[in-house]
Write a structure and sequence with these properties.
Elements: H1 3-18, H2 24-34, H3 42-69, H4 75-99, H5 104-129, H6 135-152, H7 156-171, H8 181-199, H9 204-224, H10 233-251, H11 262-277, H12 281-285, H13 294-316, H14 320-326, H15 328-341, H16 346-370, H17 373-393, H18 398-428
Helix pairs in contact: 1-2, 3-5, 4-5, 5-6, 5-7, 6-7, 6-8, 7-8, 7-9, 8-9, 10-11, 10-13, 10-15, 13-14, 15-16, 16-17, 17-18
Length: 429
Amino acid sequence: MNKKAIAWLYAELPKLVDKGILSADAADRIKQYYGPTEKTPAAKTFLLLFSLVGAVLMGLGIILILAHNWENLNRPVRLIIAVGLLAATQLVTGLVIRFKFDNTPCREGAATLQILTLGAAMALVGQTYHLTEDTSAFLLTWLFLVLPLAYLLNSTSSAVLYTVGVNLWAMEGTFSPGKQIAWLLLILILPYFFRLFKQDPYANSTAVLGWTLNISLYICFAATLNHYAETFGLLIYGALLAVNYMLGVKYFSDAPAAWRAPFKVIGLGGSVGWAFLLTFNGFWQQLQFTTIDIVEATLVISLLIAVARNIIQLARQQRRYELAFAFMPIAVNFAYLLQLWDPSGTTATLLMNAYVLFIGIHILRAGARNFSMGRINLGMLIIIGLILARFFDANFSFIIRGLVFVTLGLLFLFTNLVLARRQGRQAGE
């Protein structure tokens, strides 16, 4: 049970005790079982940040000092320094595990220092003995050595740095089938993320790692699978974003703030942004139907099945607001069919324009019903963005364009003013 649900339960306990449904002792035992609900104080968060910054500065300082005097040191001294650094950080890590494991800043600081020192020692030994100049091999070895720290120290910073390292390794060099190992590397860190999610899906650590993993998904996808997405790439990325959004709806629907629901935010923003890009005719004019690769076909079928499955689930739950975004890859799929009929891309472009307009109106209506200024502004931004995009496609004078800008701006301000007054009247009633 997450902290939000526990807080709600604790608020209900006095009512249950007053009505005789629960005894006072039973209510106390419930509180003892679930524990306190306090969020991480600001002081603790700053302490964690200072610990991480301190570890990074120490690691960089050691590297700079060694780099300055490196040429004056012989091989045995260099080896002793590298091994000594590793031994010192290992000792610090062991002491933290033994005496300060419950102290989050100590754990995160020790893990970060260990990672930097490990990379520095590997680079020093490799440079001294000319072991390898292969950056890809260096990164891969470093990643496998960093991974255990996330689990041993329960360190989110290690997990984040590891995930960033996977992205760097995937993007390094040219495309090769061996780059598919990136997916295995990402899978290896997922148990740690699931552990954080089970503890509290809306905790700071869960959100930070969630954002990192979400962004990494698309980076690794582009680095390893974009080669197989020459024909249906527009559909594949659209379906991937839709699945991302629906996972966010399913598991992060009660997020207290948008930044604590990365799956939902990236999926929604990406779906709307991707659909908007496909309103430009140039994307469809460049589309060429070539021979379909088996990997590409598998990706398309798998993602569309996942989309269809989640659409059915949302429909059963009557979640009409979310359904509109889930249908984005379906719209793109129909656009592909229209492209076969009309290779100029005109009809596919018209369909995507109609879909984005529908999305904008849909968000605007939902915001008006719930008096949500955020949704209203988002809906208006989408509609205005679509109008401006089509406006600049045509040849109009600067005066006409200026008048359109002024009109849209006034409409935007007027709508917000009217809704703000309605909210104020309702609040006063």
